[in-house]
Amino acid sequence: MWKWVFLQSQIKPHFLYNSLSVIISLCYSDGERAGKLIGELSNYLRLTFTIDPYNLYMSLEKETSLIKSYIEIEKARFGDRLKIELNIDERLLE
Predict the structure, then answer these.
(1) How far apart are the C-alpha atoms of 61 and 83, rounded to whole Å?
(2) Quick one: which of 33, 17, 45 has its CA closest to 76?
């Protein structure tokens, strides 16, 4: 369990630096998109920081929100090379 938490803490700074680099570059070319990505990064960080390392479960709704924010940020980095399709029955989110 502690190894997973340690590994997760090593990955976050790398993701954060890449995300901020993409957002900074978009500030000069597409301010509206940069603003939306800041919102996605904020959502991702909020959800990530509230994960209880002692509880291995989170709601599907939170997990889906986390995934969607992560995907939007990665799409800004990789463009058309990244194609994702989520097919989740809305009833499962309740």
Answers:
(1) 21
(2) 33
Q: CA of 19: how far to CAs of 3, 24, 86, in Å? A: 25, 9, 22
User: What is the separation of C-alpha 80 from the centre of its chain, rounded to a whole number of angstroms?
Assistant: 18
Copy the structure tokens of residue 10.
């090593």
For 48-71, how does the pLDDT look when each residue is reduced to its tens digit (9 = 90+)?
Answer: 888 777 777 778 888 889 889 999
Q: What is the pTM of this model?
A: 0.78
Contacts for 16 with CB less than 8 Å, ≥ 6 apart: 45
Tokens of 68: 């969607």
Q: How far apart are CA 21 and CA 53, in angstroms?
A: 28
SS3 content of the chain, % helix, strand, coil (to 5): 80, 0, 20
Residue with tokens 């995300």: 19
Report d(CA 3, CA 69) in Å as an integer: 25
